[in-house]
Amino acid sequence: MHELALIKDLLHRIEFIALELHSRKIAGVKVSLGALAQITAERFRERFAHAARRTVAEGARLEIEVMQDVHHPWAQHIILENVEIAD
């Protein structure tokens, strides 16, 4: 359940960005998963697709980078790297 809460928080940030840029559709999202984030890229992709239904991010292309450095300051985090606006 913790991973779903993290993804919902990420979606709130994406929706805020879309609102600030007066966009109703997100074309793509790039995230980095910390080496200790405790979620695989595949699981993240599944959870994101489910949570993004009926949001501005529904159907957005998702690029996921998995960090390898367990000593990185953000090794336990999911980092929103980029949001691509569709319109």
Nutshell version of this structure?
The chain has 87 residues and is of the alpha+beta class. The chain is 34% helix and 25% strand.
Set out the fold topology.
Blueprint: H1 2-20, E1 26-33, H2 41-51, E2 61-66, E3 78-85
Helix pairs in contact: 1-2
Provide structural commentary.
The protein is an alpha+beta fold and 87 residues long. It has one domain: hypothetical protein PF0899 fold, CATH 3.30.2320.50. Helices cover 34% and strands 25% of the residues. It is built from two helices and three strands; from the N terminus they run H-E-H-E-E. The chain has helices spanning 2-20, 41-51, and strands spanning 26-33, 61-66, 78-85. It has a three-stranded mixed beta sheet with strand order 2-1-3, with helices on one face. Helix 1 (2-20) crosses helix 2. The longest helix is centred in the first third of the chain and has 19 residues, at 2-20. It starts with a helix and ends with a strand. The mean pLDDT is 95.
Helix vs. strand class: alpha+beta
Largest sheet: 3 strands, mixed
Helix content: 25-40%
Return the string of H and E elements: HEHEE
Q: How would you write the strand order of the largest sheet? A: 2-1-3
